[in-house]
Structures are given as C-alpha cells and as structure tokens.
Amino acid sequence: MLDLAVLGLLKEGDLHGYELNKRLKSLVGGYANSYGALYPALARLERRGWVSSTAVDPDPAGDEQAPGEPARRNRRRSTRSKSGRTRKVYQITEAGEDHLLELLQEDANNERRFRLQLAFCRFLTPERRLALFELRRAHLLSLQAMARRDPVHSTDPYVRSLFQRDQERREHDLAWLDRLIAGECAQRAEYRTHRTMIDADRSATDPGGQPQ
Amino acid sequence: MLDLAVLGLLKEGDLHGYELNKRLKSLVGGYANSYGALYPALARLERRGWVSSTAVDPDPAGDEQAPGEPARRNRRRSTRSKSGRTRKVYQITEAGEDHLLELLQEDANNERRFRLQLAFCRFLTPERRLALFELRRAHLLSLQAMARRDPVHSTDPYVRSLFQRDQERREHDLAWLDRLIAGECAQRAEYRTHRTMIDADRSATDPGGQPQ
DNA sequence: GGTTACATGTAACTAGTTACATGATTAG
DNA sequence: CTAATCATGTAACTAGTTACATGTAACC
User: What is the distance in angstroms measured between the alpha-carbon CA of A140 and the sugar C1' of C25?
Assistant: First the structure.
C-alpha cells in the first residue's frame, strides 16, 4: 500500500524520504510519521528496480540542479533551504511506472487502498479509471446487500446507532462514487461530441449519422 | 483489537471460535473469515487468564447443559445441532472483565478500535462512557483542525473530490457523535431529575434546595 | 542554550490476511 | 456422492506502529 503511495507521489516529482512522509501524512487521512515503514519501503522499491536514488549533498558541489540556479551568494539559504544532512532523493523508474499502473487497478475492496488509487487515478486511461470506479461501486453494493441480508439483532442503542451510521456512510459513499462515475461518462460524452462535430465538419455532406 | 472484540462478545455469553468469527464478521464492518487471527488470539487470551475454555463434545455424555434439556430422543438434532467435531467453548474470566473495561477506555484515536469500544460501551459506567465519547470527539476535532490548517494543494479533480468527501464524512461523524453525547447528557439529567424528585419526596419540608 | 525541524535509518512489536491441512456432518 | 457448512488450527506473509539511535541546523 505504501508502494502505491510512494510511486504515485514520485511520479509527480522526485522527492526524498522526509518530504515523502510529510506528503503521505496529508494524503492518507491521519497517517503517523511512520519512518519505520517508509524507509524500508523505499529500500525495497529500489531493490526491485521501481525507484532509483541519488545522494544530494546539502552544501552542493553538485551541479544536477535546475540550469537556472540562483547565484552563489544566496545559496546558503535558498538551495540548501533546510537539510540537516545528506538527503537521498528518489526518482521513479520506467518499471516503477508500469508497476504503479498495475497497483492502480487491482482490487478496490480495500478502503485505504482505494483512497490511494483515487488519489492517483489521473494516471490511468479513462477506460481503466472508469473500470476502477465500477469495481469499487460493486464492492460497496455487495457490502450494502450483506448489511441488508442480516440486519442488527442487538437491541443495544449504541450498537444500533453504530450500524445506522454505517448505513448512512455507505449510502453517502455510493452517492459520491456515482457522481464520480457520472463525471467520467460526461467527459467521455463530451469527447465523443467533440469528435462527432469534427467528423461532421469533415464530411458535411453526410445526411443522417447514427440513430439516437 | 481482536482482544477487545472477543472479550466483549464473550461477556455477552460463552461462545466457541467458529461462532465468534461469525459475530465478528457482522460486528466489524467487512471482517474477513480470518481464523488465522482469531484462534491464536483465543490461545493468547487463555494464556493470560482472561478467558477459559471447555471442550464440548458434539455427542454429549456431558451434563453441563441447561437443566431443562430436551429428552433423549431428539438430541441427535437439537443439542448437537451442527458440529463437525469437538468445540472449544470459551468463557470470560473476572480478570478478563477487568481487562475489557480497560480496553474500552484507552485511546479512541483509532477508527476501528472506537467502533468496537462503542459496540461494547454499555459495559462502562455512564461517566466513563461519556469520557470515551468526549475523547473521540476531541480526536475528530483535531483531525478537522489539521485538515483546515493545510487544505488541499492539488488541482486534480479526483483528489479534490476525495478531500471533500473526507470533510463531509468528518462533519457527519461529529454530528453523530454529538447526538450520542447529547443522549448521554439527557439520560444523566433524567436520572438527576428522578433522584431530585425522590429527595424532594423524602424531605418535603425542605424549602430551597440548591439554587438552579 | 534548549527546543523544534530536518534527515535517515533499525529493531521489536502489533495487527491482520491468505493459504493450507484436517476432518466431521448435513442438505440437495 | 458432492457441495456446503461446521470446526480448529498452523505457517508464511502483508502492513504498519512505536521506540530508539544519530546527527545537523535554524529559531527564539
């Protein structure tokens, strides 16, 4: 799961571990500053060839930075910015990008995973993205069906309140997902309309087109 | 976490592992039929003296059953009901009940744990129950504050949609919790009114009582 | 001169899943 | 007779947390 998050964040741009962790915290709702998971994950990703790393000196003789580097005099504050020690900046590899696309499509029966998949689903093709949403939708529907099949037996008010909240949450989630799906379809329709208009333009002599 | 769920369920009545797992499935939203976690947990709980177990033969020479046992002839279907093999029925011990009360009060910053705490919070005193709710409320408020402090930077529509859902969920959850808390306070007020009436009855000569 | 933030990492632990092994009983 | 359900368990794995170790540099 961390793999998905890390690869997704690295696809947006190169980062070092500490910075990755900060972004993870805001991305995953209430994620601990759990370096104990992140650094081993980065090492693993590198071993498997999905990311590569570059040691970056805080006081750089390094010249790998952007070509329009600020001049020497304000380096001490601007390029070093803040860095206690040498950082390891990670980049995603081509193999890593392929793997990311795989991770973005699997399952969707896991709340946390789907959250990450959604956060990076823009990297998928529209078709695969829609498939992901539909998969999640099917899962939510099956949960809802299960809940309806065997309703709460308990008479305890706290348990009943809990289960009612669950149901409201499921319904809210489904409505939200449906809006996302509708958005996808609208986009697709827009694209198709656009293409149709171009087609019509290209062959203005055509009389009917497709029915409906 | 399983400890909490198991002790809570056993406090309601003696159960064997297989049955426990079925109840867990409905209690914890979408819990796998994960015997690989349950049976080791039961063994651990027993080692620590929080539960004790009794082997129950499916074709009982056993006489531990309720005194009003149905007669011999329909035993083969009614008392055995369904049992492929010898079951191990677990009971909660006194030490286990103490431990359960501890588990019911710790933290509340964990979604899944709080779910279980709520499911069994009826075993707490009203004071401790209210304290639990307030703890959870404080946690939700801090999450909300955090989200407000650094809002979404991303312009990606999927990410934005995700974070908006998060906020709606937080608000819905808080409102729900507030209703629970209000319920607790109402109960307390009811009790106090009741007691006051009794007090007034007992000493009808008393003129003022406490102001307000 | 102490606290906070930057930066990387390890070890031990918590928590749960997946897959397997085994075997009895019951319903179709 | 075969599939499903009942019933208990183990082993290997996935996933993440907590606590520790280490050191720099900026902020007040």
Answer: 34
- Of residues 61 to 120 in chain B, which lie within 7 A of strand C by their beta carbon? 76-77, 80, 82-85, 112
Q: Residue A187, Cα to own-chain centre: how many angstroms?
A: 19
Q: Which residues pair with A88 in a beta bridge?
A: A55
Query: Over its length of 212 residues, how does chain B's per-residue pLDDT go in tens digits?
Result: 999 999 999 999 999 999 999 999 888 866 777 899 999 999 999 999 999 999 987 655 444 443 333 333 333 333 444 555 789 999 999 999 999 999 999 988 899 999 999 999 999 999 999 999 999 999 999 989 888 888 888 999 999 999 999 999 999 999 999 999 999 988 888 777 777 777 776 666 555 445 44
For residue B18, which nucleotide's C1' is closest to its Cα? D7
Q: With an 8 Å Cβ cutoff, is B176 touching chain A? A: yes
Using a CB–CB cutoff of 8 Å, tell me whether B141 touches chain A: no
Tokens in use for B68? Answer: 């009003």
Rg (CA), chain A: 24
Contact flag B172-A169 (C-beta cutoff 8 Å):
yes
A194 touches chain B (CB under 8 A): no
Length of chain A: 212
Q: Which CA distances in Å does A25 have to A18, A126, B103, B111, B143?
A: 11, 28, 27, 16, 12
B150, burial (CB in 10 Å: exposed 0-12, middle 13-18, buried 19+): exposed
